[in-house]
Amino acid sequence: MSISWSSIEGAIELGLLYALMALGVYITFRILDFPDLTVDGSFTTGGAIAAVMISNDFSPWLACLAAMGGGMLAGICTGLLHTKGKINGLLSGILMMIALYSINLRILGGAPNKSIMGMDSPFSGEHVMVIIIIVVLLFKIMLDLFMKTDIGLALRATGDNKRMIRSFGANTDVTTIVGVSLSNGLVALSGAFIAQQAGFADITMGIGMIVIGLASVIIGEAILGARTVFWATLAAVVGSIIYRIVVAIALEVPWFDTSDMKLITAVIVIIALVFPSMRRSMKQKKLARRRMQELMQSTGQRATKGGM
Questions:
Q1: Residue 51 in contact with residue 114, Cβ under 8 Å?
Q2: What distance in Å separates the CA atoms of residue 156 and residue 177, rounded to the nearest whole number?
Q3: C-beta separation of 81 from 92 below 8 A
Q4: Measured between alpha carbons, how far is 123 from 15 in angstroms, rounded to an integer?
Q5: Which residues contact 157 (CB under 8 A, 6 or more apart)?
Q6: pTM of the full predicted structure?
Q7: Nearest to residue 83, comparing CAs of 166, 193, 207, 200?
Q8: Are 191 and 18 in contact (CB under 8 A)?
Q9: Dihedral, CA atoms, 212, 242, 71, 209, nearest 10 degrees?
Q10: pLDDT per residue over 148-201, tens digit each?
């Protein structure tokens, strides 16, 4: 088995494009503690809006902004279902994901996919990687700064202890809606970039995105940790890149096929979930053994002195 540099480079590029989606999942999964399955639908929404606008001669960057707006709107609907409709968070996301399937088909004009191959996009130039890195870093820094504002701090506090932050007079319904909306905006933006990079938007392109986003966040945190917001968002970006590199390497294994992507994803997530807990358990056992040895040595020394 051998993997070329071009495959690694392609994986890094894809990882950076999916990093925006991972940042969105980080907001709901880690900050808000909200099980948002809207992601699978809003990712396609972003791709569909971008593809339709670009095919109608709109600027690709304007199409990206519109895609982000569409994702934020979907997030607002999910947030309203949960906070005002009093529907369980998981069910709110599932309902919105189902609704978005029909909405996305409407956006795509009733067709299951829309090609934008050969049309103008940020990926038609020579410095694609540089543009992607700048865009991802820009949104990462903006998210870091947002989390330090009053609404950002309220958002983090809502995820930590909703009852406490409510007792301080903060409106947790608003912070939840803002968080879910921002999350799906980033997810849709990622979908818009992926559609432009692939040259088409497809109605099924969002299936399984929530699992990939969770895998990216968990892998990143297992490697870099999440001591502060800066490290947590950086971990989401790095985790997304590592996930794509691992997938690229796995697909080079002779008996793996592209149809095994879901299986590879599930195995990566399982390893990312199990490995940190195994490492903690091993550390605790090692610490316990060392303390036991120190205790036995101390007891032995006292017994020796007593005998003298």
A1: yes
A2: 13
A3: yes
A4: 15
A5: 164, 165, 170
A6: 0.85
A7: 166
A8: no
A9: -10
A10: 998 888 888 888 877 787 777 778 889 999 999 999 999 999 999 999 988 899
